[in-house]
Design a protein that fits this description.
Blueprint: E1 2-8, H1 11-24, E2 29-34, H2 41-51, E3 66-69, E4 76-80, E5 103-107, E6 121-129, E7 132-139, H3 142-150
Parallel strand pairs: 2-5, 2-6, 4-5
Antiparallel strand pairs: 1-7, 3-4, 6-7
The structure holds adenosine-5'-diphosphate (ADP) and magnesium ion.
C-alpha cells in the first residue's frame, strides 16, 4: 500500500481534508479511520458530511453503532464499531459497508475487520500535540491518492 500525508493545525483544517475526500472518493468507497480517542476521526467525518452537503450535525455514533445520512449529494454511512469490540454481533452492518453510491466511514474498524472490503482506504489520524494532527491516507489506488494530493 502507498500513502500520502497531510498535516493540520486546527479542527477546521482537518474538516477541509474531509471535504476533499468527499469530492474525490468514488461511490461505494469504504474508509477505515484509525487513531486514538480525540485524534479527530469524527471531525474528519464532519468535513466529509459538509462536502456532501449534509446539513445534519455529525456526532460519533458510539452508542448507536451506525448512522446513515441520506439528505446530501450521496449517502454517508458513519459507523463506530467501538462497542462491537470482538463480539460476534450480527446486526447486518455488512449490508451497509460499501453501500451503492454512498461513502462508508468507519471508526474503530479493527473490531469489524472481517467485514472490510479488500480495497478499504485506511486513514490514520495521529495526535502530534495540541491542535496538530498528521493524517495518513493509505490505499493501493495510486490514482486516488494522487487526486487527493492535488485536490
Ligand atoms: P475522535 O473521533 O478521533 O475520538 P474527535 O474528532 O471527536 O476525535 O475529537 C477531536 C478533538 O480534537 C475535537 O475536540 C477537535 O476540535 C480537536 N482538534 C484540535 N485540533 C484538531 C485537528 N487539527 N484536527 C482534528 N481535531 C482537532
Ligand atoms: Mg469519534
Amino acid at each position: 500500500m502507498k500513502y500520502i500525508t497531510f498535516q493540520t493545525s486546527s479542527d477546521l483544517e482537518t474538516r477541509q481534508i474531509g471535504y476533499k475526500i468527499a469530492q474525490i472518493l468514488p461511490n461505494g468507497s469504504v474508509v477505515a479511520l484509525l487513531g486514538d480517542l480525540g485524534a479527530g476521526k469524527t471531525t474528519l467525518v464532519r468535513g466529509v458530511a459538509n462536502g456532501l452537503n449534509i446539513r445534519e450535525v455529525v456526532q460519533s455514533p458510539t452508542f448507536n453503532i451506525m448512522k446513515i445520512y441520506l439528505k446530501g449529494d450521496r449517502p454517508l454511512i458513519h459507523i463506530d464499531a467501538y462497542r462491537l469490540n470482538d463480539v460476534n454481533t450480527d446486526i447486518g452492518l455488512e449490508e451497509y459497508i460499501g453501500y451503492e453510491n454512498g461513502l462508508t466511514m468507519i471508526e474503530w474498524p479493527l473490531f469489524i475487520e472481517k467485514l472490510l472490503p479488500k480495497d478499504t482506504i485506511y486513514i490514520e489520524l495521529i495526535h502530534d500535540g495540541e491542535d496538530k494532527r498528521t493524517i495518513k491516507i493509505s490505499s493501493d489506488n495510486l490514482t486516488l491518492l494522487e487526486a487527493l494530493k492535488n485536490a
